[in-house]
Every structure is written in C-alpha cells, then in structure tokens.
Amino acid sequence: MSDFTRAAPFVHRLRVYWEDTDAGGIVFYANYLKFFERARTEWLRALGIGQQRLKDEHALMFVVAATSVRYLRPARLDDELDVTVTVVAAGRASLDVAQQAWHGDRLLAEGDIRIGCVDAGTFAPRRIPKPIADAAMQELRR
C-alpha cells in the first residue's frame, strides 16, 4: 500500500453527491470502488482509449479480477475528492493499480485493484493493447 504521499501520475477530481452517501451524508463504503472505476476510466480516456471504442473496434474489455480497499476516513456529501491511479505492475493481460481517494490533504481510502484485459465475447484473457501497455511501462519506470 501507499506511504500516504500523493505521487500518482493521474488524478481524477469528482464531487460526492447524495446518491453516493448513506442517510447520514457519509459516503457508502462500496462507492469508493465506483470512484476508483471512474478514475481508471478517465486515465484510459486521457491515453486516448475510450472503453466503448476498445470494445467496439477491438472486442476487448477490462474487468476487475481482484480488489482490496482500506478505509481511513469518511468522505461526506459535497466533498471534492481527488482519486489517483498509479500502475504498480504490468503483465501481458493484466495491470495492478494502486488507487487513493483524497479530500484535500487527507487520505480517505486506498485500494489495490487488478484489472484484466479480456475478449469481449468469450472473456478469455487477451494481450493488453500496446498504447496502454506502453503507458503502464512508462509509469513503472518512474
């Protein structure tokens, strides 16, 4: 896990809405996985790779194979969060990603996510497309 620093190369900002919270205005724990998913999607988009296009043109999808999340502090209604994406390992068909959710300088949650690249029809593992693999390798060299 992290050393509580904000060194990720990609950050996605989002706001906490009513739909993200429980009756007390606190973010429901499972919604951090949604926040992490949104940040990974925007990371791919920043690389010029839309997930719908990846599916339509290449018959590929990314699926979550494993997650581990640690909750440190609550996020609340209307908070602006910075959600980070850092590639920590890359295989031929999978990426291990460390993610964090920050509110200002407070780390709220952090997770380790393994995503796999699969055939959109059969869900069989497929090689990660070169632009994504190249970007992941660049991050690993930092």
In words, what does this structure look like?
By secondary structure, the protein is of the alpha+beta class. The protein has a single domain (10-141), classed as Hotdog Thioesterase (Thiol Ester Dehydrase, Chain A). 25% of the residues lie in helices and 37% in strands. It is built from three helices and five strands; from the N terminus they run βααββββα. The chain has helices spanning 31-46, 51-58, 130-141, and strands at 10-15, 60-71, 80-90, 94-103, 106-119. It has a five-stranded antiparallel beta sheet with strand order 1-3-4-5-2. A hairpin with a 2-residue loop joins strand 4 (94-103) and strand 5 (106-119). The protein starts with 9 loop residues before the first strand and ends with a helix. Mean pLDDT is 91; it is low at 1-7.
